[in-house]
Design a protein that fits this description.
Length: about 325
């Protein structure tokens, strides 16, 4: 299995589509910090938009752009006119909220939803993704978006992302039996496919996605997931990758911004957290399964990374805040 498949198999991600927005300028979407285990996302289906996030410069968005916020940070998306947004009017279909306004300017069509991270330690996923991730123009044709703010059927069929987005749009528009469940599964597929395109794109982000794009490092990454109980050393990881120790350390650090030893520890704690929730095994036994002969050492490291003891984590059902 590749790195992305391993992480998504270990940390289940589902999703839901919350709102479909049909706006005429001036309009704006403002979201505060997301709840725990939620990753907000937006898909610009047609029209033009501007994204504001943190202290960074505003970014122009075009049809087909997919924006997600792994850190759950507050953000604002608007038409870019600088005018006060026209009031929003909401109505509900069977399971989807539709937001409209009375703006008479340029039209925009946006899907807004959230990815839901399963109840396992998720630092391995969140800490290695940027706070804001944009995958550009899944079905944008140069020049066409500026002409009519839309995309032709031919353009929609050009990429897997575009076909997936179109299916989500159809389910959101023409709801039928099982639409809510289907959209949840499609959202999970959108999350995986978005990360894949981001990891293989010309500007792959620093961190987990960049590591996924380093095939020479994959033998070491595979070893972490397949044999977490092995007392791995940097020399052994380097040997698996047919590199010198110094080259391996440098390339790993360049890709993800931390050492292979740190990532191994995060893999072990994620595996341990899942075992704590899905099995009745003793804490010490789980610690041994992920590489710790000393129960005290395992408990100390688990609490340092996850924030609570293994026993408290299990008792809370993985809800660290409640614990």
């Amino acid at each position: 299995m590749d790195l992305l498949s391993r992480v998504l198999a270990l940390i289940p991600v589902s999703g839901r589509l919350d709102v479909r927005c049909h706006f005429g300028a001036p309009w704006a979407i403002a979201q505060e910090n997301a709840a725990v285990r939620e990753i907000p996302y937006h898909v610009l289906l047609s029209g033009q938009a501007v994204l504001e996030y943190g202290s960074g410069a505003p970014e122009k968005l075009v049809p087909g752009d997919i924006i997600l916020f792994p850190a759950g940070g507050a953000h604002r998306i608007h038409d870019g006119s600088g005018e006060s947004a026209s009031p929003m009017i909401e109505r509900r279909n069977v399971s989807l909220l539709v937001a409209e306004n009375e703006g008479t300017g340029a039209q925009a069509d946006i899907l807004c939803g959230r990815f839901l991270v399963g109840a396992v330690p998720d630092r391995l996923l969140r800490d290695h993704l940027p706070g804001r991730l944009v995958v550009r123009g899944a079905f944008h044709q140069p020049g066409r978006g500026e002409i009519d703010g839309g995309a032709s059927p031919a353009a929609l069929a050009d990429t897997r992302l575009a076909r997936l987005i179109e299916l989500m749009r159809e389910e959101a528009t023409d709801e039928g039996p099982g639409s809510a469940t289907l959209v949840s599964h499609l959202s999970a597929a959108l999350f995986a496919l978005t990360l894949r395109f981001a990891s293989t794109g010309p500007e792959a982000p620093h961190g987990l996605l960049a590591l996924a794009g380093r095939p020479r490092l994959q033998p070491a990454v595979s070893a972490m997931f397949e044999s977490p109980a092995t007392p791995w050393t940097l020399d052994q990881f380097a040997s698996l990758c047919n590199m010198s120790r110094a080259t391996f350390v440098r390339q790993f650090q360049e890709a993800i911004g931390r050492s292979a030893t740190d990532v191994l520890t995060e893999v072990r704690m994620t595996l341990a957290g899942r075992k704590l929730l899905e099995s009745g095994l003793a804490v010490a036994e789980i610690g041994e399964m992920v590489g710790y002969q000393s129960d005290a050492a395992f408990q100390r490291i688990f609490k340092r990374l996850i924030g609570v003891t293994p026993a408290r984590y299990r008792a809370s059902g993985g809800n660290v805040d409640a614990a």
